[in-house]
Amino acid sequence: VGTNLTDLLLRRKVTIRELGGCMGPIWPSYYGDCGAVLFMIDAASPTQVAASCAQLLSVLSAEPLASVSVLILFNKIDLPCYMSLVELKSLLRMQDIVSCATQPIAMVETSARDGTGLADVLQWLQAAL
Question: Which pTM does this prediction carry?
Answer without folding.
Answer: 0.89
